[in-house]
């Protein structure tokens, strides 16, 4: 609360509705009511919307072409002032809509007073916010795609690089690093298209709904919708000014995407830890410790891992703000922007940082391979051998393999180092060819089923993605 001035005197009566008021608002009323510090970010959209609206008013002969021209010229000057940092934003004028309109009045006089014909701040803000969130969807979808491309490049490079695949973070079966990268490309594709789906649904223009009921003027809503790049005008005036699910949907898509980023981030944290040693980030994406000289910390990954908290929080914020609001507009809805803006900024930052890290990160193929070999990761291959070459039922094969793994573990040996006599003590029919089945390369190569980790599959998938994301 910066402005501790006494209750505002009469001259502070609103230019916009001062007619029926005898005095201006209390300082604290002004403080809680003003949104300009947040919604000034909508200035571009607000000017774009006002231009479309005034052009339509003139085309429909609701205002004169001369007025529309004056309005357009004034709005251009205001845009230049804001761009140059010369515009003085005023809390007393509450929000971006009234700040711009008041300045327009100063600049062009009387025609400015006609701009608000057949419009209300309710459809105005609904339009501005939709335009903003629509652009965010485009930008976030593009940022996701940049990250996908970084991952596809790594998948191509490491299509055959064997690493341990995990379940429960316990070594499970060998996979290739390329396959692992492409798993994220798949989930990111769902994220990307979620943003684009949300965009499609939100792309209807609320302008012309006015306060809540529509207007008694012969406006052309198709014209404003088209000018602003919307597919069509919204069909119900009450819904037009009440709906914020377009922002909720974008935040939901963001939260899901942030969750995916957090998983990849966590893996980067694990892989770059000395205990794994699978990956290294260069100085460009590492930080040091002020006390422990040996440290190289993956801070960017950790921050990407954390962003989901803020982004999912933004979804919750808006969902709760909107819950139980009766139709149509309520001032509660002014609280829609802070959380949304913040989440969109967080997403843009996290996606860019993640793409940067993926580009930057180098993989230690030898360490990944060694870890895959060490963890008895081909035990399933041994069981499959017993099924396919000896005819055991899978459950029996599983049991026999368990006994062989236990024998190797007791001797501190890897599966492929265990003498064949030890294996034959469990299952006498095991042949020398077992050692071929136990190699991690044979294991991944054998998994050539559709969607499997075989290097040939991965290379083909990486090529397909590269073509698709061109
Ligand atoms: N600043 C407001 C908002 O963001 C604009 C709409 C105000 N409408 C009203 N009826 N007071 O929601």
Amino- and carboxy-terminal Cα gap: 51 Å
Task: Name the ligand types.
Answer: arginine
Question: Mean pLDDT, nearest integer?
Answer: 95
Describe the biggest sheet?
2 strands, antiparallel
Query: Which structural category fits the helices and strands?
Result: mainly alpha
Helix-strand pattern, N to C? HHHHHHEEHEHEHHEHHEHHHHHHH
% residues in beta strands: under 5%
Low-confidence stretches: 1-9
What strand line-up does the widest sheet have? 1-2
Shape: elongated
By DSSP, the count of extended strands is 6
- How many helices? The count is 19
Give Rg in angstroms.
Answer: 31 Å
Kindly state the percentage of residues in helix: 55-70%
Which terms summarize this structure?
binds arginine, 470 residues, two-stranded antiparallel ribbon
What does it look like?
This protein is mainly alpha-helical and 470 residues long. Helices cover 60% and strands 4% of the residues. It is built from 19 helices and six strands. The chain has helices at residues 27-33, 36-39, 43-59, 65-83, 96-108, 121-157, 177-202, 221-227, 237-242, 245-272, 299-322, 337-360, 365-374, 379-390, 394-411, 420-426, 434-437, 440-446, 455-468; strands at 162-167, 170-176, 204-205, 232-233, 279-280, 362-363. Helix 3 packs antiparallel against helix 4, helix 4 (65-83) crosses helix 5 and helix 7 packs parallel to helix 19 (455-468). The longest helix is centred in the first third of the chain and has 37 residues, at 121-157. The protein is elongated, with a radius of gyration of 31 Å. Mean pLDDT is 95; it is low at 1-9. The protein binds arginine. The site of arginine has 10 residues, from helix 6.
């Amino acid at each position: 609360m910066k402005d501790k001035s006494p209750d505002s005197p009469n001259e502070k009566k609103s230019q916009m509705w001062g007619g029926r008021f005898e005095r201006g608002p209390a300082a604290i009323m002004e403080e809680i009511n003003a949104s300009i510090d947040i919604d000034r970010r909508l200035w571009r959209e607000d000017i774009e919307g006002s231009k479309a609206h005034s052009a339509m008013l003139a085309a429909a002969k609701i205002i004169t072409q001369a007025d529309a021209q004056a309005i357009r010229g004034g709005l251009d000057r205001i845009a230049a002032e804001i761009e140059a940092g010369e515009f003085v934003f005023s809390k007393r004028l509450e929000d971006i809509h009234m700040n711009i309109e008041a300045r327009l009045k100063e600049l062009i006089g009387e025609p400015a007073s006609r701009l608000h014909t057949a419009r209300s701040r309710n459809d105005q803000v609904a339009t501005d916010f939709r335009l903003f969130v629509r652009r965010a969807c485009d930008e976030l979808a593009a940022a996701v795609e940049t990250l996908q491309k970084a991952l596809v490049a790594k998948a191509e490079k490491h299509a055959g690089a064997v690493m341990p695949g995990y379940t429960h973070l316990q070594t499970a079966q060998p996979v290739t690093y390329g396959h692992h990268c492409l798993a994220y490309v798949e989930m990111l594709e769902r994220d990307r298209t979620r943003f684009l789906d949300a965009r499609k649904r939100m792309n209807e223009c609320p302008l012309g709904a006015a306060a809540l009921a529509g207007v008694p003027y012969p406006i052309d809503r198709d014209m404003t919708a088209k000018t602003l790049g919307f597919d069509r005008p919204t069909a119900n005036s009450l819904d037009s000014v009440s709906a914020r699910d377009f922002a909720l949907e974008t935040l939901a898509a963001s939260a899901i995407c942030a969750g995916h980023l957090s998983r990849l981030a966590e893996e980067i944290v694990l892989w770059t830890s000395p205990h794994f040693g699978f990956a290294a980030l260069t100085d460009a994406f590492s930080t040091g410790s002020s006390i422990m000289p040996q440290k190289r910390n993956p801070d960017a990954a950790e921050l990407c891992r954390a962003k989901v908290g803020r982004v999912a929080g933004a979804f919750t914020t808006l969902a709760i703000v909107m819950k139980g609001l009766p139709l149509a507009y309520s001032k509660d809805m002014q609280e829609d922007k802070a959380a949304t803006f913040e989440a969109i900024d967080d997403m843009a930052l996290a996606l860019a940082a993640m793409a940067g890290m993926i580009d930057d990160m180098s993989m230690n193929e030898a360490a990944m391979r060694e870890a895959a070999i060490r963890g008895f990761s081909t035990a399933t291959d041994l069981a499959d051998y017993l099924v396919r070459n000896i005819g055991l039922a899978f459950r029996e094969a599983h049991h026999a393999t368990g006994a062989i793994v236990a024998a190797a573990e007791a001797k501190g040996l890897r599966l492929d180092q265990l003498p064949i006599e030890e294996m034959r003590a469990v299952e006498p029919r095991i042949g020398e060819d077992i050692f071929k089945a136990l190699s991690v390369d044979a294991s991944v190569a054998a998994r050539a089923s559709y969607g499997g980790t075989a290097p040939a599959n991965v290379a083909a998938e990486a090529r397909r993605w590269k073509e698709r994301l061109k």
